[in-house]
Structures are given as structure tokens and as C-alpha cells.
Amino acid sequence: MNVIKEALLNRRLNKALASHRCRLSSGIKSLRDGAKLILEPGVKLGKAEIFSRELEIGAYTDVVSGCEFLDVAQIGRYCSIAADVVIGQARQSHPIDWLTTHHFASNARLIKRPIKREHPYRPTVIGHDVWIGRDVLILDGVSIGTGAIIGAQSLVNVDVPPYAIVAGTPARVIRYRFEQPLIERLLASRWWELPLEVLGELPLDDPQACLSVLERQASAPRSLPGRLQINSKPFAIEELQGRAAAQVSSLIGASGA
After folding, report:
1. What is the CA radius of gyration of the chain?
2. What is the C-alpha to C-alpha distance for residues 199 and 191, in angstroms, rounded to an integer?
3. How many CB atoms lie within 10 A of CB 87?
4. What is the secondary structure of 195-241 as a DSSP string?
5. 137, 193, 218, 230: least surrounded by Cβ within 10 Å?
């Protein structure tokens, strides 16, 4: 892509992003190999590389620079992702039972008899309000539950329960943020579906008090504004209509597990 074409595409992209209060620091260069990106309002993405076939990122999620998104389909709302995190790394990218672990064995441009490898598509799913520390590696097919915390430099190769704090290589549960009865109430409240202005009126430093308010307002209508869909090949930007909260919960799951 020449410099002028890239500048024109980024101009269109930045205008669309601004209308959704989103940021994509690397612009069109972030989207690799035909990736599709769907953003809810308020998403901030530092310089990142997105290889996912289709990745949807929830409202107000904040991603620091240096991250790679490989086989990952969903990242929920209000997530905090530190620098140099890799999500959706394939488990079978280097065959240990072949003559060589190098990729040349399956590259038709390098050898005459390449071996075609079939990889099952098992995307990673990240729930809501997940905090991922610096230099974390999360493998494909893993589900990270809502409210979980992943310690820096961890390797995550199995599912993480909601509101668990995990760390290590491989990562193990250290403890939970809250007692199980409170976790169940938090998940049932689906607080992440409320508008930001409503959340701003809650006593956020007191989860018990927040739940007392939320449970009294359980029947309040919840919906989402429109989303922004960005396709890399061919380049296209599309405004998607908002969806009912129940539809969104069905994608990630009310538990985020």
C-alpha cells in the first residue's frame, strides 16, 4: 500500500473512530491478513496487531501498545489490557512430532512438497471487566471469565473462572476477588450493560452497596448504541445498529466464563 492511499484510508478510518469515541493508534496497519474489527463506543487501542478473522471489542476497553490479537473472537466491556500481551496464540503452530518444528515444511513458496496442516479454529473469548497484566500470553481456545485478573508475565492455557486472580507459568488460581455469593450476585446484575452515566452514579468503591442499587433496578431497560465494523480486505467501514443487551450476553455469556 502506497503512502498516499494509506493516508486517505486512515483519514476515513479516524473520522469514523472519532464518531464512536474510539482510538486505533496504528490505524489501518493494525488490521492484518483480512482481519475484521468490530468496536463498541469508547474503545482505546494502542499500537497493536490484529490477525483475528473477526474480533469484537466491548465498550470502554483500554489496550496498551505492543499487543497481538491472534485467534480471539471477543473481548468484553471495561477490560484493561497492559503492554505486550498476546491473546489467542495457536497451540500447534510448531509441530514437535515432525522432522522439524520450522514453518518451511508447510510453505509452498519454500519447498516443492509442502504439508498442509489443518488447524481447528478455537478462538479465545475474554469476558467483561478483565484486567490482564504486562507480557501475558493466552493460548487459543481459552475463556477468561468476567472480573478475572491475570498477573503479569503469565501463561494462560486453561479457562479462568469469573473473578479469579491467576498468575504463573502456567497460570494457577491464587484467590478470588470476592466470596462466591457476591460473585454470583455481580454476574447476575450484568452491570456492564448499563450506560456509563448510570454507572457513574453508583458507589463503585462498595460492591455490596452497588448491588443493592442494581438489584432494585433490575427491570430497567438495557441496550447498546451502534457499533463500528472495520474490514481490512477489501477496506470498508460500516455502522452497525445497536443490539438488545440479551443478544450481547449470549455472545460472551452472562457469566463471562
Report:
1. 20
2. 8
3. 28
4. -HHHHTTS-TT-HHHHHHHHHHTTTS--B---EEEEETTTTEEEEEP
5. 218
Each residue's pLDDT tens digit, 121-165:
789 999 999 999 999 999 999 999 999 999 999 999 999 999 999
| Distance of alpha carbon 100 from alpha carbon 107, whole angstroms | 13
Q: How far is CA 142 from CA 53, 73, 155, 214, in A?
A: 16, 11, 11, 30
Q: What is the pLDDT of residues 20-60, one digit of tens each?
A: 999 999 998 999 888 999 999 999 999 999 999 999 999 99
Query: What three-state secondary structure class fits 180?
Result: helix
Place of cell 468503591: 205
Give residue for cell 504463573: 168
Q: Which residues of 89-126 are buried (b: 16+ CB within 10 A; e: fewer)?
A: beeeeeeeeeeeeeeebeeeeeeeeeeeeeeeeebbbb
Q: Is the pTM of this model over 0.70?
A: yes
SS3 for 81-146 is ECCCCEEEECCCCCCCCCCCCCHHHHCCCCCCCCCCCCCCCCCEEECCCCEECCCCEEECCCEECC
Of 186, 183, 160, 182, the C-alpha closest to 173 is: 160
Residues 6+ apart with CB under 8 A from 116: 106
Query: Residue type for 170, please?
Result: P
- Per DSSP, 80 falls in state E
List, by residue number, the catalytic residues: 94
pLDDT category at 242 given cuts 50, 70, 90 is low
The CB-side HSE value for 160 (13 A sphere, CA atoms) comes to 37
SS3 249: helix
